[in-house]
Amino acid sequence: MALWLVRAGRHGEHEQRFLDTNKVYVTWDNLKHDLSRLATKQDLQQVLRDRDPNQTKGKVSNNSGQLWPFVHEMKPGDWVVVPSKLRPAIHIAEITGAYVFDKAADNPYFHSRTIQWIANDLPRSNFDQDLLYSFGAFMTICKIDRNDAEQRVRAMAKTNWLATGAAPLPQGMAEQVEASGTIDLEQIARDQIARLIIRKFKGHGMEVLVEAVLKAQGYTTYRSPEGRDKGVDILAAPGRLGFERPRICVQVKSGDSPVDLPTLNQLIGSMQNVHAEQGLLVSWGGFKSSVLNELPTQFFRVRLWDQDDLIRELLAHYDKLDDEIKAELPLKRIWTVTAQEDAE
To answer: Global pTM?
Structure first.
């Protein structure tokens, strides 16, 4: 058995299709050719050159090196990792079918394999750092075999997706990754920041962090005492005394599980109780689809922050955070060359 990485588009644009159809797809645009009929990888490269004569030799080689395994090497029983671009999460599935070419499918969904989802929306923070390095490869399709990745992911499935407690990242691996330019360094940095946050601010401490971010944004705040919030963790409003508008009611959930619709409804009820015009629901574990489906109807009343949103706001206002928070989260801004994806 093997473990594979399959991405659902550069920006996650195909992710919902993967989830809804129980399939993983090759998402190369206009690749309308039955790849199973090609006898060799050289034949595949010729198809790619005919499709786009302007492709460089390196890009043709890179793309063929990803497409060939999807068609010929993946097998039923193998597992697939699909990193989400829409939220800080990982989806895991098992391949259940052979490669299928559907000429009549909508572009670009001509090439697929059926899968059975094993777990969806697993927090990235559940996975050891070296696994996240592997999941961060810029390749769209590739086999993940470094550091016993397959055995460790399967072991996680037996322990409710808790980290295996593997050895620290091998010495020099980060430098090798940076030199190769094949890893999403920005995502890896966010993963490291997320691990530090959950270690320092788990539980009631998450409310402290959210309050600090709101203060850095210019709000005056009130934070409820621990254990006595009555559905209100933080109140916030602009102005030195907090008498200006909008008045915001905030609920903060630091658990790993996505929050559901009753939590959103509780926030809306609390907004009415404290005469707040708007609400902010912060959930480290993200949100179930029942909550996300309510976004259009609650657009002018409620905002949702998952861990990516919280980290984004923290980084945007880091310089204005108080010194105590900065001491707990010592961060440094760096510049690096933007890595480019060679694949489609």
So the answer is: 0.76
